[in-house]
Each structure stands twice: as structure tokens, then as C-alpha cells.
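Example complex used in Figure S2.
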Amino acid sequence: MRSSSGSARAMSSSYRLSNFASRLIHDYDLKPDVVLAVVALAAFLAAFLIYPMLYSLREAFFSDGEFTIDFFMLLFRNPAVLTCILNSFKLATASTALTMAVSMPLAWAMIRYKFPLQGALGILLLMPLILPPFVGAIGMKQLLARYGALNSLLMSLGLMDRAHPIDWLEMGFWCVVIVQALHLYPIAYLNLAAALSSVDRTLEEAAQSLGASPMRRFLTVTLPLMFPGVFAACILTFIFSFTDLGTPLIFLYTQVIPVRIFNMVETATEDPSGYALIVLVLAITSVLFALSKRLSERRQVAVVSTSAVSPKQLIGMKGWFVTLFILALCLIAMVPHACVVLNSFAKSWAMSALPSEFTLQHYEAIVKHPITTVSIRNSFIYSLVSTALDVVFGVAIAYILTRRRVPFKGLLDIVAMMPLAIPGVVLAFGYVGCYANTILDPRVNAAPLLIISYAVRRMPYLVRACYAGFQQVSTTLEEASMSLGASPLRTTIKVTLPLIYAHITAGAILTFAFAMLEVSDSLILALNPPNFPMTKAIYVLSRRVGDGPRIASAMGVIGMAILALSLSIASRTLGRRLGELFKV
Amino acid sequence: MVEVRLVNVTKRYGDIVAVDGVSVTVAPGELFFVLGPSGCGKTTLLRLIAGFIDPDEGEIWFGDRLMNRIPAHRRNAVMVFQNYALFPHMTVFENVAYGLRLRGLSKREIAERVESYLELVRMGDTKWRYPGQLSGGQQQRIALARALAVQPDVLLLDEPLSNLDVQLRKEMRQELKRIHSQTRITTIYVTHDQKEALAMADRIAVMRSGRVVQVGTPHELYRKPKSRYVAEFIGDANVIEGVVRRVEGGVALLSTPFCIVECCCDDAPGLSEGMRATIAIRPEAMQVVSARNASADSQAINEVRAKVVDVVYMGDEELLELSVERGHGKWHLRATHTNPKERVLIGDEVILRFSSSDVILIPPE
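Predicted assembly (949 residues):
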């Protein structure tokens, strides 16, 4: 009796299995090449994205195999940690508020009005994007030091008492906020501008004809319609500021979460409370990210139709006033980096508004110094390899997502986008822990993990760029090619890839540029000088007394030059569409 | 020239049956239309023939070759898309040469063939331009040249003229007919525009929710629709319900609510006294006579007195909306008054007359 029911169950389950198998074959195209690609992608993402996160979760919640929240209790009872959490929140909020206050009027002016030099300003506005805040902070420090450029200028103008200079750097918090906001406003601006331009102007006109004043129109029609974009911009800014390691570190504003995590790396393998902190950060960023994603998915609803209402021409003084305002903002945003450039050429720079004597000796030092030359070479190698990895993965993932029916596609999509929500400090910390004492141990040779971490963190950008490309290429073009007799592979090579070439190139160049100036992964993972990338070398040099900060500045200038060069190539391939890559 | 034969072809998307047991044979060299409203499954049918999707059931034959599971690029059935699908990164020349290169033609042959097919569509001077620099009508011609250049066994056209303006559309109809008569490629043309179908087709298959409801020449479909749906979808029709009173010598007499209708019933052998029957009369088959000059009584044959409710004056004709009242009932009729000399006004009484050969007897469904 029992055996027969058992066999019946076995039969029904085997039936279900075969049913499932036939559905797999029928509903999906499981060609060997696709299966292989999916498995390879899944393995990579599992090893270098999922596993480190799970490892951190396990370390944070389990002690000797038992579930515990002790590490979190420990965290919350530690007043130093609480201060860090509070500071990080304050910092991110202030940065976001300042960024929004700057970028909203910018977006409004650029989208709704026409004024002199608008085109040039549109490009100039994006400049701070390529100026790494971490490098800018070094310049800012020079500017704001007790006997630095600003105070010297104020003193020589008689606006400050020579005996009692203000120590601006005491206010590390505001220094960090300003440097971050000056770096982030272009991203916020691009998002707000996109949101604003997608608002159907006829809706505003409808409100106007119903008698609504300009302010009322803005508050009741425009702002609600662009809200998802505004929110997305806020979240992006907030997460960046919340997890930025480089800027607070340079300003010695150390009571924030990322710096605390950085300081715990040394003891990562012994002290599990570090993982609790990691998990906390991850939880916060994930929730924020998920929120903004949900809202941005609703964004499409707002677009009813694109209207042909053209921007209003500002004539005479009004127009030039807007031009001057934006120009001033651009110049202010570039002050920190201008200081870096000056600093790199300065023989000495104290007690004066500008360096008193110029020299090339810091650049000579770079050539001579073993750490610096090695680090530049390292950065190039790491960035190139990680970019190559990203191109392969980005194209493959985007192709599978847009063109193939495979099971668990939604999951692949989510996992491929996950790095956006995972801060560099979190991922790097996870790597240090879970790959300790393996062949990938960063304490022995950080190169593989640095390359992988760059690749993983920037992968979403390439996936997104390629995804957008594949989506833009109408499938009817591919069908046209196939109906003319081209095989799917040939169609991809001859029709699809040439059409998304610009997307891939631009994505790759951006990936490369950002990898060159990646801060948090680099600072955490590069533990031995032979593996130092540029950013770590800059950090180490900037802390050295004497000419350290100047050599660091010279390194920063070289980094910015590489970045500017890459981006100018990218903008040449992409033209006006470059901006699209920075949107959420 | 290849015959295309569909045998009981079915395609489902989840619970929706997009194409439902379609069996159709397209003769070699025929210009065959698939006509139906949007969502009736006609484009799905075309994509099944092209090979972009595979049927769940049924067979697709090109001549004696079974095409099921053969991918699109090995079918030599070329599709022309509604949005033309010209490769934007290639010049006109490269677009047309694309399929030829795949077929391993020599450089000279390719150049010659591109040239001659661009001539065929009268676009010889656009060779080095990019699709983005061409107007919609020009793109349409290039898309056609690209498809024809590979000398396909079957040409598939998916609403090729729907993105063009009215004038261009009329022009392209003539062009397509000319090109088809020059090339004689078996062509399947999908459209929702019945005028296009009537004007161009050798034969038409009318589709409705996934099924083919009738196949025939334009003349057959217009004169002898087999269902109310076809009668109303192709052209316009006054559909009237009646009861058969007498059948004699190929002529039937029906009583309808407002007149007695005499019609031919050669095609309806099963018709007998007492049966309910549906008839349709085209608006243009109605002769409009002013009621002042004639009288009509309710026992008159093929004659109705009606009141004008609305008039649309078009110059060459007047479209009349009419109402007929009998007792408590009220019916609406439409008539086309061709070459109107005197204006008919709203509120006028008119008499509608029609010949018994213009009455369409629709078989019971």
C-alpha cells in the first residue's frame, strides 16, 4: 500500500519535472551559447557580488553558528558609532539640500529660458563631474588653511585681523558639504532638467488658462509632475554623500560611517562589529535606492505628450544676469581644482593669495618616486582590464535581457543593477573579509580584487548603456536583417552592434575614467604599496608632511588630465547624448 | 514563384488565440491580401509566415517545403515593415546591397542589382544618402527595393502604406501594383484598409479575431459577402432582417418590417418559406427619388419611403442618413445619392428603390 502511494508520488513528481522541463524548452530559447553565458555571468556575480554580501550578513548576525543581534546592540551602545551615524545623516542631508538648492534654479533656467552663451554654459556646468571631489578636497584644504590663500587674500584686503585668522578647516563638516555639493550638482541638474523637460507644457498652459499664477503652477502642476525626477536626484546625492570616503578623510572629518569602516578594515577578520556597520549601511542605501527606483518607474505616467512650446528668450540685462550667475557658479565649482593645479606647481604657498614661486619639481618627484610611477601604471592596468570585463559583461547581460527569453531574467536584471545600491566601502569591506587567506587575499596581492571591484561597481553603467542601445535598436531592424537572410549572429554583428557602438564606447570610457579615480575600493583594498592605484598613492602622499600634499596635487592633476581626455573622447563619440549616461 | 499554403495554423499567447486554425492557399505569383481590423491577428499571421514566430499547431508550406521551425533567415521570405526598418547606419546603397552580400554575389553583380532595383522603385539618385535624409515615401520605396533585390520567394508587406499621407498612398498603390506585375513575386499584403485591398488585391482573406472568415476576389467579397461581418467591413451595407414568403424559380420574396424585398436566391439552395433571412443592400445601390414625384405604399416591392435625417454633401455624391418609421419601430438606412443635381434637405421625404440583383442574401451563421 505504502509502496504504491510512494511510487505514485514519485510518478507525479517526475511528471511535474518533465512538464517543467518541456515548459523550459518551449517557453525559453535555451541554446547552448546562451546557457553558457548565463551560467558564467551568474557565477561571476555570485562570487563577487552576492557572496561578499552574504558573508557580511553572516558575520553580522551569527556568532559561533548561532543567530545573534549582539553586534548591532554593541554598535548602538557605542556613543562613538552613534555620533558617526548621526554625522553621516547630517552630512548627507546638508549636501543634498545644498545640491538641490543649486541645481533646481539651474535646471529651470537651462530648460525654460534662452539666454546668451547657453550652449557653452551647458558644457561648462558639467565640468565638476570630471573633477574628483577627493582631489578637489586637497586643493580646498590649501585654500582654507589658517594661513592659506583665502585668509591671505582677506588679510591683504584688510578684511581679517592678521593676528586672529579664522580656521575654516575647523568647520570640516561644511567643507565636506561644499566640496560634495560642488561635485554633485551636475548629476542632480541633469536629472532635474530631464524631469522638467518631460513635463508636458500644455498642462501648465491649461493651469494658466484656468487662472493659476506662476508660483501656483509650479507648485501644483510642474513640481508634482517632476517629483519622481526630483526624488531620484535627492536619493542619488544622498547616497553618494552618505558613503563618500575620500572627501571626509582628506578634511579629517573622521566621525562619519565610511571613515569608521575604513579604519576597521585592519581588524576586519577579527572584529565582527565592522560587519554589523556594513549591514546597516547596506540596509539604508538599499531602502533608499529601492524607493527611488519605484518612483522613477512611475515617471513615464507623467508624460502625456511632448509639446512644441519653445523656451522663452530672455532679452537684454535679464539674459546676461542669468549667464553671469551660472558662470559664477561654474567658476566657484572649479576653485578647489584650480587650487590643486596651482598647488602642484607651487614651490611654496603660504601666507599669500597665490603661490609666490612656481616649480616643476613635484612632477619630477612623480617621475622619480617609485610609488607614484607604479601607481599610475597600476591604475591604467586595473582600469583597462576592469573596463574590458565590463564591456563583455555589459553587452552580454543587456543582450540577454533585451533579446533572449531565459528563465530568471528578472533576477539577472536586479542582480546586475545591485551594485548601484552597494557602496564601495561595503563591497570592499566584504571582499577583505571573505577572501582573506585565499589566493585573492588583498593583503598578499590586491590587484585581482581591485580589478574585480572596479568592474562590479561600474557594471550597471555599461549594462544600462548597452540596454538603452539594444532597446533603441528596433527589433524590426533585426527582423528585417533576418528576413533578408542574415543569421542571428550576423545580424547582431552587422546591424545591432554598429548601431549601439556609441553607447558601448561611451559607457566603456566612463567606466575607465571612473575606475582611474575610484576612491573607496582603492583605499580599502590596496594594502601594499606595489599594488597601489593612483588614488591610494594620492591619499598616502597627501598625508605626508612637507611637500607630500604638493606631489599629491601633481598626481591629482595627472588624474584629472586623464579623466578630461577620456571624457572628451566620449563626448566626441556620443555628442549631445553624453548627458544621458549620467541620468538615473 | 512559389505557392504559400497554411494548414490549420494556430498561434496562442497565453490564453489569447492570436491566430486560430487558419488554412489558406496563396497561388504562385498572386498578390494576396489579408484584411482585418487591428488586433484580428493579421500581423501575427504574417510574422508566422516570415518565420519570426513559430505556430503552436498547423503547417506552413512554401511549395513542397515545410517551413515550420525553419528560422526566418533561411526562408527567403522577405518582409517590408510598417516603419520600413531601414538600417540607419547604412546608406541607401548599403541597405539594398545588404541581402545581396549575404547571398555571396560578386561586387559587380551587387552594384548592378542595386542599380536596377533602385531604378524599379524610381529611386536611382539616392544611392549615397542615408535613410534619415529621405522622406517617408522615399524610405518606403527603398525598403521595397531592399526586399525585392534579393528576389525572394515570398514578399511580405505589413501595412506598408499606413505611414504615408493620402496622396502618396494612392500613388504608391499604383506603384506597388506595377512593381508586382513586373516581378510577379508571390506577395502577401496585410492591411486594415479595405479600399487598399479592393483596389489592389488578386484575392483577399478577411480576418476576424484570429480566424479567416472569407477568402475571395475583391468582386466576390463585395458582391457576395458570406456574413454580415464581411458585408459591413468591406464597403457599407444596410443590413435588414426579414422572413421568406415565397421561393420560386431562383427568386425569393421576403417580407421585412417596411417593404417587400425581391432577390435572387441561386446561391442559397436551402432557402424555404417561413425561414428568417438577413439581407444587405449597399448604400450606392439605393436609388433616391423625391417623394413628390412618386408614391409608394408599404406593399410595394423593393421600394421604401424614408425621411432624411442627415446629409453629407461631397460634390460627386451625397451621403444620406435616413429613417423609416413603421408603427412603433424605427430603422436607420444609408443611401448614396450619386451625381446629385437637386439638393436633398434634412426633413425631406424620399423614396428609395433598389433592384433585386443588388440585394445580397447573407447565409444564416
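The beta strands of chain A are 62-63, 66-67, 113-114, 312-313, 346-348, 357-358. The longest strand of chain A covers residues 346-348.
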